[in-house]
Amino acid sequence: MHKTILVTGATGTVGKEVAIQLSMTDDIRVRAGVHSIIKGENLKRLPGVEVVEMDFKDKNSLHAAFTHADKVFMVTPFTSDQVEMAKALVDEAKKADAKHLVKLSVIKADTEQGLMLARWHREIEQYIEDSGIPYTFLRPSSFMQNFINYDAASIRNEGRFYHSTGHGKIACIDVRDIAAVAVEVLLGSGHEGKAYELTGPESISNQEAAQIISDVTGSPVQYVDVPADAARNAMLENQMPEWMVNAMLELESAYSEGRFSNTTHTVQQLTSRTPHSFRQFVKDHQDSFE
Question: Which Gene3D superfamilies does the record match to this protein (predicted)?
Fold first, then answer.
């Protein structure tokens, strides 16, 4: 019998990759929840994928998306009301009698309560725990794809990228590996009630990342460390909301202190393959940086 798995945030960095990898699996129907049907057009080309419009603030929209969904991979947007949005999704999953809810969280959500994002994600996790729905939490480190999403333009145009992380090292992870774990957790057994911390195989600084990008592309790339005050002013001048500026600077400070430098072996343990190195990630996406 076919199983239907709802993926929320299916046009996002992780949600899209999860939908892609699930679509390669037999006997699975993927319901890709998107904010805009137009943005979800490419997902319609994937085998076994149904695209549904989801407005997290519209209960009728959520009810339609969750109807007959056996399992849910839950991604919420990076917004100031993401906790409320997530709780609405959990409520709908409970009404639909979902058999398993897999939530994309953040690394150290249970221990880094000094960080806004960690607090928010932990609040959502606790709401899920209290819901009675069988759950699994995936807690990944920073995404390698963030170098494409946020830094590739300045790398191409200036040969530089900018952050406030000092020489701190980060055990960043390729979202392809997060998705591979998600597929294993959604389709496998014995993962209920567990939280998995996910990292790449190595911990690198932004200076080392710049050198790797330089080596792969053949063009010099420099990391520029920006004082926190200057970074704040630049983000505010670019109309970034103050809550988001605060959240980003909290993360950058934590990275600079090496608080997210530890690696885990969880990806290999769950998928039986080594996670992508940063060098391999850059090779696979070389055209993004040239």
Answer: NAD(P)-binding Rossmann-like Domain, UDP-galactose 4-epimerase, domain 1
Does residue 136 contact residue 194 with C-beta atoms inside 8 Å? Answer: yes
Taking the CA of residue 84 as centre, how many other CA atoms within 13 Å lie in the half-sphere pointing to its CB?
Answer: 8
Phi, psi of 7 (to 5 degrees): -115, 115
Q: Say whether pLDDT at 227 is over 60.
A: yes
Going by C-alpha positions, the residue among 101, 110, 106 that lies closest to residue 132 is 101
**CB of 219 closer than 8 Å to CB of 159:** yes
Express each pLDDT in 50-104 by its tens digit: 999 998 888 889 999 999 999 999 999 999 999 999 999 999 999 999 999 999 9
Can you list the domains of the chain with their CATH numbers?
A: 3-140+174-198 (3.40.50.720), 146-170+201-262+269-289 (3.90.25.10)
Residue written as token pair 């709401």: 127
| Residue that the structure tokens 């963030």 belong to | 146
Q: Mention every residue, 6+ apart, whose C-beta is less than 8 A from residue 249.
A: 164, 228, 231, 232
CA distance 175 to 72: 18
Bridge partners, 205 (sequence order): 169
Query: Taking 90 as the threshold, does the pLDDT of residue 107 lie above it?
Result: yes
Residues in the chain: 290
Contact between residue 139 and residue 195 where contact means Cβ atoms under 8 Å apart: yes
Indicate the DSSP class of residue 106.
Answer: -
CA dist., res. 12 & res. 147, Å (int): 15
Q: Whole-model pTM above 0.90? A: yes
Please give the structure tokens belonging to residue 147: 């170098």
Cα gap 51→184, rounded to integer Å:
22
